[in-house]
Amino acid sequence: MPHITGYDVFDVRFPTSLTADGSDAMNHDADYSAAYIVLTTDDPAVYGCGFTFTIGRGNEVCAAAMELRARPLLGRDIDAVCGSLGGTYRSLKQDSQLRWLGPDKGVEHLALGAVMNAVWDLAARRAGKPLWRLLADMPAEDIVDAADLTYLSDALTREEALEILARLAPTRGERIQQLTESGYPCYTTSAGWLGYSDEKLRRLCQEAVDQGYRHIKLKVGASLEDDIRRLGIAREVIGPQGNLMIDANQVWDVPQAIDWVKQLAEFNPLWIEEPTSPDDVLGHAEIRRAVQPIGVATGEHGMNRVLFKQLFQAGAVDYCQLDACRLASVNEVLAVQLMAAKFGIPVCPHAGGVGLCELVQHLSIFDFIAISGDLTGRVTEFVDHLHEHFVDPCIVRDGAYVMPANPGYSAELKAQTLQDYAFPWGDYWAGTDAGRAEQEWRTGSAGRGIAFAGARAKAEA
Amino acid sequence: MPHITGYDVFDVRFPTSLTADGSDAMNHDADYSAAYIVLTTDDPAVYGCGFTFTIGRGNEVCAAAMELRARPLLGRDIDAVCGSLGGTYRSLKQDSQLRWLGPDKGVEHLALGAVMNAVWDLAARRAGKPLWRLLADMPAEDIVDAADLTYLSDALTREEALEILARLAPTRGERIQQLTESGYPCYTTSAGWLGYSDEKLRRLCQEAVDQGYRHIKLKVGASLEDDIRRLGIAREVIGPQGNLMIDANQVWDVPQAIDWVKQLAEFNPLWIEEPTSPDDVLGHAEIRRAVQPIGVATGEHGMNRVLFKQLFQAGAVDYCQLDACRLASVNEVLAVQLMAAKFGIPVCPHAGGVGLCELVQHLSIFDFIAISGDLTGRVTEFVDHLHEHFVDPCIVRDGAYVMPANPGYSAELKAQTLQDYAFPWGDYWAGTDAGRAEQEWRTGSAGRGIAFAGARAKAEA
C-alpha cells in the first residue's frame, strides 16, 4: 500500500518589489513569495504540492512551521489520508501545543493551510481529477465532514449545511456545463497598483477593457488627491457602466475610512475593500452603514471561519473575499462558503500574489456548482503576475477563468523556478546583494535559527 | 556610546506534561515553554531579557521569528532604543513583509512581543528601576506615545488616553504606598487543574484558603458530571463567601457554553473563563447575556488590541484577562489597559505558564497606580509553577503579589535552566527519549528547517 514517505519544503521568493508590482498603501516593497511543500510517496508519480503565499521576509518562518505541521503525515497510508480529508485535517489541526500559537491564526494557521493544500492536491491527482471536480463528485455528507464547522453552530448547523448542498445537488451538472462554456467571471487588479504612473494606469485600464473585463480595481489610501485623480482616469476609461472597485489595504482607522471613502463616492465605486483592520468586525459594520450604497469588501486577511461568521452575523460586509491560503485550506474554505450561502453574501475570493489565482479558480467554480448556484454579484480576482512559474497555470479568456482540466489543485511550481528563486541560495538570489547578504548572515551566524538555541545552551554548559 | 551588539535566542521547554500541571479541557499535555531572547550590548552589565510563553511544539518556530524580529536592533544606540520605547516598537512593527503573516496575531505577534519585552527589560535595568516604577515615573505624554493606539480611535482617542492618565497623576504616590504595604491581590489556579484527583483538589483548595486566598479557579468543560462533583468539593472548602471561578479553555460552541454554564450556576461562580473561541466577540456577548449574573472573562488568547476594543464595544466581557506575551509587550498592553479604564472593565491579567506571573505583577501594579486607580473586582492570576528558574522570581504573600524591587521586568532565566532545559540539546532533554528523538530528527534530516529549502533547491540545480 502506498504511503507518504517524505516532504520537501522550499522558501521561494520573487523580486517583485523591483517593479512595484503589488504596491499599495500598506505594502510598499512586497517580494511575492511562496512557502512551498511537496509531499512525496513511494510512487514517484504520486505526490502533492501546496503552499502559502507571503510577501517576503518571514517566508522561512512559515516554511519551518510547515515542516512541523507535515511531520505527522510521514508513513501514513495514502488511501487513509485521501479517503477522509476531514479526518486528515482534524488529525493535523488537533495538536494542542501548536494550537496555542494561534489558535487558528497567523503563521501556524498558514502552515496548516499549506500542508492541507498539498493533501488536497494529492487527493485530486490520485483521483485523476481537477480539484473542483473532485469536490463536485463528493456526496454532501463527505463535503460537510470535510468542512471545519467548529465554533460555527450558532450560525450554521451541520443539518443546514447538508440542506444547502442537497438543494443544488440534482442540478450540479447544468452549472458544470454552463461554466465549461462561459468560464467563471473575474476582474483584474493588474492595472491599479499604487506605484504605477498615470500613463501606465490609463494604458493598463484600456487594455483591461479591451480584454473584456467589466470590473477594474484600484489601490487607494496613500493620498486623497492622487486617489481622486487616478479614479478619474479609471472611470473615464471604463465608462459610467463599468464596475470600479477601490482597495485601501487596511490603512485607515474607522472614522478616517468613513471620511475618506465619502470623498471618493463621486466615482461610484462598487466596493471599498479592506478599509480598516481585518480583525475589526464592528468597525466594518459601522463603515458599511456610513458609506452605503458603496459596498464593503474584506477577507484576504480574514484569519479564520470565526471571523467570517461574525462578519456575516454583524452585517459587516457585502462581499466575502476569502483567501485560499489565509484560511486553513479547502476544509475551512468550505465552511466559509457554506455560511456565506446561508447569509446570502457573495463570495469573491482574493487572488493574485503567487499562485492564488491557480487555487481560487477551483474554489469559485465549486462554489457555483454546489453551494451558491448563483453568479449574481460574483467576480473572482485575477492578477496577471507569475503564472509562468506554474506547471498548470490558470487560463483567463474574455474576463473569465477557463475551467481547469488537469488533475490536482494547479499548485505545482516548475523545477526551474525552485532552482532560480529559492531564497537565498537559488541562482537568481545568489547573484544579488540581498541574496548574498542573507547567505552570509545565515552561514556566518553559525546556526542561528532553530538549531541555535540548543547549540548555544550546550556551548555554555 | 553603548550599542546593541547581538542577541541569543533559546528554545526552553519544561516537561510539565509528566505531572499534568497545566492540564485543562483543551490542553492535555502542555510542556510549558519559553522562546527566550537576551539582547546584549558592548557593556556586559547592560542587557535585556524577554520571552514569549508557549506549551511545547512550535516553540522553535517562535524562536526563529524572534531572530528575524530582533535583527533590526543590531547596532542601534541604546540611548535611542530606550529613549523612545514607542518609536522602537513602531520601527520593529512596521515591517510590512512580516505584517502580512498576521497582521498583529499568531507567531509573528508573539515574536514582536518577546523582543519588545526584552527591550523594556533593558530600559528598566538601565534606569535601575523595576518596570512598574519605570512606567510610574514616565510623564503621561511618554506613556501615550508608547501605547499602540492604531485602529483604536473609534473607541479611545489620544486625548482621552491623556485625560485618563492626568486624572490619576497627582495621586500616583499614594497608591504606590498602598501597594508597598498590602501588595497587589491575586488568586490561584494551582489547585484546579483537570488532571488532579479529587483528593489532591480538596487538599490544594484547603492549602490555598489557609494561605490567605479568597479566590480559587477550577478547570471545567471535559465532563459535566466531573465538573459538578469537583465544584462541590471546591465550594465546600472555600465556603459560601469565597470566590469560585471556572475556566473552560475554549472547548464549547456558543449554544453549548450557555447550556453547560447554566448547569453549574448552583455553585455560584464569579466568572466563566474562555467559554468559546477567543476570537468570537459576538459569541461572548451572547453568552454573557444568557448566563448573567455569572460574569464572562476572556483574554489570555486575546490576539491584539483590536479584539479587546470590540469585546469592550460589544459589552462581551466582565473581566479583561490580557496576556503579557500574547499582546505585543507593554506597548500594546498599555493600549488595552487604557481602553479598559474608559469602558470601566477591570483588568485581571492571565498568568501562570512560564514567567507570566513575573511579568504581569508589573503590569497590574502600574495599572492601579496610573490607569485604573481602583482594586474593586480586580485580582491577578498566580500559579505556583516554575518560579525557581528565574533570577528574580515574583513573591506572593497572603494572597498578594509583593512589589518587585529589583531593576528590570523580572524576565531573566537562570543560566543553569538554559543549560538543563534548552530543547532538545539541554542536559535534561538529552537524557530523555523525546529529546534524543528530536536531536536525531534535526541532525539526521540534515538541515531541515529554515536552511533546508535553499539547500535542497541548490542540490537539485
UniProtKB/TrEMBL annotation, chains A, B:
Cofactor: Mg(2+)
Name of the molecule in the record: L-alanine-DL-glutamate epimerase
High-level lineage: Bacteria, Bacillati, Actinomycetota, Actinomycetes, Micrococcales
Gene Ontology MF: a single term: magnesium ion binding
UniProt key word Lyase: yes
Domain of life: Bacteria
Keyword Protein transport assigned: no
Record key words, sorted: Lyase, Magnesium, Metal-binding
Residue intervals of the Mandelate racemase/muconate lactonizing enzyme C-terminal domain: 198-294
